[in-house]
Each structure stands twice: as structure tokens, then as C-alpha cells.
Amino acid sequence: MQPQARHRPERTYKTGAVTRMLRWFSLAVALTASALLLVGYPQMPNEVPIHFDAAGQPDAYGDKMVVLGVACGIILVQLAMYWASKKPQIMDYPARVTDENAQRLYREGERFFVYLGLSISTMTAGVGELYSTDGSTVGSYLVRISPAAMAVIAITGVVRMRHASKPESESGFHG
């Protein structure tokens, strides 16, 4: 038996300029990182790093075909983040969605996916640079800080969504 479809208010708010710019920037970074991986593929050795330690140094190696999967994966994940950020009404929220709080929750859901996409694209740029420069300091730094950024984004996103779910008169939340 299929669960009943949720009936939620339509999204009516206007996305802010910064959020729109970051959404496109994240997608551009992911596409650029993937393109650079594909362009550099023929010059790569047959064995490439497939995992990096906390310091950004390679600690496992595999066939260079893995790079093709990484390039495709980067694009697919970023497209999923882009799509999800445009459809915040389908997201599961840490609070009940009502007519009164829907637009505030949707805005925070959209921001969550945009910022998460930005941190993922930052990490992929770091991975791309590690593949192309054989252990770059910038690449290892980006790979190290991105998981921490993702954790901060997740915690902040949940807190902001919980706050946005309260009646405006109680929370003083204005997005």
C-alpha cells in the first residue's frame, strides 16, 4: 500500500541573489573540476591515488579508470544538490510544515542544499587538484576542511530549520 502523498503549500518566496549565485557557482566548480579531470586523464599514470588521509596525502592507489567514475560522480552529486535546492517542499524537515511556517522552512531547506553543494564542490575541487598536481597543498587543504564545513552546515541547517518552524511571533525569525 502506498503512503498518501503529502500536501504542502507551494513555494512562493523569491530566492535571494546570494543563494542563486552560490548555487550556480557550486555547479560551475563541479563541472570545471570534472572537466579538468577528464582533460588530464590521458596523461595520468595507470595507477592513481583513490583515497587521501587526513593530511591530504594519498594512502591507497587504484586503476586510473576510477577517475572517470569520480568525474561522473562529481557531476551527478552536484546536479542532485542543485535540483534539491530548487524543490525544498519535498524535503523532510525536523518539524511539521504548516501554512504559516512553510515559506521560512523552504527557504532554509533551499539554503541547506545550496551550502552543502558548495562544500561538496569545494572538496571536489581539492580532489581534482590533488589528482592534477600530485599532492598540492591547496588541494589537501580543501579536502581536509570540506568535511568539517559539511558538519557545520548540517548542524546549522537543522538549527535554522527548527527555528524557522516556530511561529514568527515566537521566534522573531525573518529568514
UniProtKB/TrEMBL annotation:
InterPro entries per UniProt: DUF1648
Segments passing through the bilayer: 21-41, 65-84, 112-132, 138-159
Organism annotation: Glutamicibacter uratoxydans (Arthrobacter uratoxydans)
Listed name of the protein: DUF1648 domain-containing protein
A Pfam family reported for this protein in Swiss-Prot or TrEMBL: DUF1648
Domain DUF1648: 30-69
Record key words, sorted: Membrane, Transmembrane, Transmembrane helix
